[in-house]
Write a structure and sequence with these properties.
The chain is mainly β. Helix content is 3%, strand content 43%. The strands form two sheets. A five-stranded antiparallel sheet has the order 1-9-3-7-6, with no helix packed on it. A four-stranded antiparallel sheet has the order 2-8-4-5. Strand 6 and strand 7 form a beta hairpin. It is globular and about 60 Å long. The two termini are 23 Å apart. The mean pLDDT is 93.
Length: 165
């Protein structure tokens, strides 16, 4: 019987950085998708199709204008997908929901002011996930849960802390 050794045994905690990009200044309605594509959280597994646990997501909003500190629903998927267009209502298909891992809600009150033009949120939880057979990344599709209009310099970046199997 052949033996395959990956060089790693047990869970390994890793962090992965992601960026929602500069946000659109057009008004978002509650339920709209915040970005123009699913945002990859790379290195969510050692091998395609593996599993792990998403432990924490840390978000930072920065702008030279007014901070929105948005109420968000972060949809998580085990493979790549194309969501509704930016500023369009969330409309996932059955095939997209088939690869969904779950979601995390971020409340407006969870954001902490970090000084002029910056706010932070630290969402700690333990969400097990399984990736699609061709994927080593988790994917986030952020949905706003209230109406917002972001400043032209507004950005949201993040860090995911994961325990990969």
């Amino acid at each position: 019987m052949p033996i395959f050794y990956a060089g790693q045994v047990g869970q390994e905690k890793i962090k992965s950085i992601f960026d929602f990009g500069t946000l659109d200044t057009v008004a978002y309605a509650s339920g709209d998708i915040l970005t123009s594509s699913a945002i990859a959280i790379p290195d969510a597994s050692r091998f395609a199709g593996d599993t792990g646990t998403l432990l924490k997501i840390i978000l930072a909003e920065s702008t030279s204008g007014t901070l929105q500190k948005p109420t968000l629903r972060l949809w998580l998927f085990g493979g790549s997908l194309t969501p509704a267009a930016r500023n369009a209502a969330q409309a996932f298909t059955k095939a997209q929901f088939d690869i969904a891992v779950g979601y995390v809600d971020i409340a407006n009150a969870s954001w902490i002011n970090g000084g002029t033009g910056a706010a932070y949120v630290d969402a700690t939880f333990e969400m097990p996930y399984g990736l699609q057979p061709t994927s080593t990344s988790l994917y986030i599709v952020p949905e706003v849960r209230a109406a917002y209009t972001f400043h032209s310099t507004a950005k949201i970046t993040g860090t995911a802390i994961m325990a990969i199997d």
